[in-house]
Design a protein that fits this description.
Two copies of one chain form a homodimer.
Chain A lengths: L9 H29 L3 H10 L6 E3 H8 L3 H13 L3 E5 L7 E5 L1 H21 L6 H20 L7
Helix pairs in contact in A: 1-5
The first copy, chain A, binds a DNA duplex through helix 3 and helix 4.
Chain lengths: ~160, ~160
Amino acid sequence: MPNEPRWLSAREDRAWRAFKHASYQLDVRLSRELLQDSGLTQADYEVLAVLSDPSVERMSAQDLCATLTWEKSRLSHQVRGMQKRGLIAREPNPDDARSVVVRLLPAGRRAIEEAAPAHVEHVRQHFIDLFSPAELDTIATLNERVLRQLADEPSEAER
Amino acid sequence: MPNEPRWLSAREDRAWRAFKHASYQLDVRLSRELLQDSGLTQADYEVLAVLSDPSVERMSAQDLCATLTWEKSRLSHQVRGMQKRGLIAREPNPDDARSVVVRLLPAGRRAIEEAAPAHVEHVRQHFIDLFSPAELDTIATLNERVLRQLADEPSEAER
DNA sequence: CGCTAGTGGTTGACTCCTCAACCATAACAC
DNA sequence: GTGTTATGGTTGAGGAGTCAACCACTAGCG
């Protein structure tokens, strides 16, 4: 890499590389494990996780987008696939004829209930169980700082 | 989410969500910014970053794969595209007729030298500058623990 | 009302990545 | 040597996500 004005110091570079690498590898590993022992992708799992909350069950597409921080076209494609597999249903929204409500079907509930224990176990194995309670709090605090900064300084495209 | 045997506690859930969310959002933001102000994808940037190291300049495809922890087919597709754009060249390897050596071309060097300052600045803005030196060390240590665990316990597919 | 602007959602084209199949060459066994 | 296995790399099909264009409906303003 070329030398630049505000280049990263060794300490900064180490932190950045470790963070980037760890999150990438973790994502790859968990995706594969989830898919192998449940047939669900991470996207499937996230949608089902939201809808399977007892206080939810049905949710408009826009609210799902907001909850997942997904683009609406992504959700649309995703929902089409999950509908074809019988995991969820699309229903008209009585309050707004433009809107669509997504409902969890029994097969979808079964799918996430079967997938969740193994998935959580993998999250523990590769992440949670490596840290003390105090370290978990540190992780939460530091990462929330990143999220807040991103939210406070919206990207060019959103301004 | 259904109640499961070893479900996550509130503290565990907070750390896991913050980590997952922050790394995802950061990736999305940095990718977009990089593409907008340099025309390079993250994949382009990573390849160029490796090759532009003064001590490198040319590297066999297999070594590139190992350095980037990429699959060989991904590198092959990626290299084809970057070759078409004149950023790098493919050369035969005199030591092994099966092998291919990737060489950085002047246009590739120019591309990363132009892209790097702004990209590093964004990495600082969204990540590095949010933390004290001690916090950066903590981030490095904790994330390296994740990486080590993943490396020590290879996935089903690799065993 | 009637127009216009905004919102909710879908679609299709394109890019990126993975996986499995494949080809050529190299390394090893006998 | 010859046959077998392993390695380096490419290819094509298919899944997943983004973007821009579009349609239908709603809401706000005159």
